[in-house]
Amino acid sequence: MSIELIENKLGKLKGVVSRTSTVIATAAISAALASPMASAILPAVEAPSGGTATGGLMTNLQLYLKEYGALIGLVVCVVAFIIVAVSGIASFHEATKKGEWSKFGITVTVGIILIVVIIWLANKAAAIL
Question: In angstroms, rounded to a whole number, what is the distance separating the alpha carbons of residues 64 and 109?
């Protein structure tokens, strides 16, 4: 390779490095200037509803975990309702074909009792949390 070719490639490399450093510096300055404006628009974090959040970080975490526990209980109730509904529909479809309405009645009754028990247990668990 000739010296001119090497110097040409080094010159191009210096130009790329110079442009890249200029872009990075511009992005850093823009981010530094824009961050106070962006954080000024954000709302304050809402305190947990389980009590006052004056106890510090651990109290806040306990209150948030209590709320998430209640949310998980609600999700379990919804899943149980969907399972009972699907089972009831399948039992109804089977009852219309075979004429076994007693099995359909038992399925619906047990499903309703199951949903009521799950909701009751979720309420009890939310009070214990």
Answer: 36
Q: CB–CB of 32/25 below 8 Å?
A: no
Stated pTM of the model? 0.55
Q: Which of 46, 74, 50, 73 is nearest to 62 (CA)?
A: 50
Q: What pLDDT does residue 20 have?
A: 79
* Pick from 93, 91, 86: nearest CA to 115: 86
Buried b (16+ CB within 10 A) or exposed e, 69-107: ebeebeeebeebeeebeeebeebeeebeeeeeeeebeeb
Give per-residue pLDDT as tens, 69-122. Answer: 888 888 988 998 999 999 999 999 988 888 888 888 999 999 999 999 988 988
